[in-house]
């Protein structure tokens, strides 16, 4: 194992591209690519990137706690679902082959900087959502205690979400 220092704090998710390069987001909004001893800035969301996934067309899907659900290609950033009262902490995602995105909103009550308060209050306001390719949004699970990581079954028949505050996994589908 090799540890590579990066110029940034709070490295969150890790994503590996087809060439074996590693991408991660840091708290100042940058998405970094680490390869061959170099650290390059791939994009800057202007927010707080958390979960990273590949979209079927090769673009980078980013769950940004401050900006929402984003698609990035080069310097172009498309907001698929904006952050706001209905999406307070976009945290992690999984993407189906047809472009359907399953993603979490960790809390409807607290912003990311107050994530501990959400766990202590045990408000259970997290959700697992689905964004269809046509942009339609659906809530699949609600009442999730700090919804976090997402995984899609290989056959895409179900999706699992990590319920951090309950120390468990929940399945939808």
Blueprint (SSEs and pairs):
Layout: E1 14-16, E2 22-25, E3 30-35, E4 38-44, E5 49-54, E6 60-64, E7 68-73, E8 76-82, E9 90-95, E10 101-105, H1 115-121, E11 126-131, E12 137-144, E13 147-152, E14 159-163, E15 168-172
Antiparallel strand pairs: 1-2, 2-3, 3-4, 5-6, 6-7, 7-8, 9-10, 10-11, 11-12, 13-14, 14-15
Q: Helical region count?
A: 1
Total count of strands: 15
Distance between the termini: 37 Å
- Unreliable spans: none
Q: Report the oligomer.
A: single chain
Q: State which percent range the strand residues make up.
A: over 45%
Q: For the residues shown, what is the average pLDDT?
A: 93
Strands of the widest sheet, in order across it, are 1-2-3-4
N-to-C order of helices and strands: EEEEEEEEEEHEEEEE
Largest sheet: 4 strands, antiparallel
Quickly give the structural class: mainly beta
Shape: globular
Helix content: under 10%
- Computed CA radius of gyration, to the nearest angstrom: 15 Å
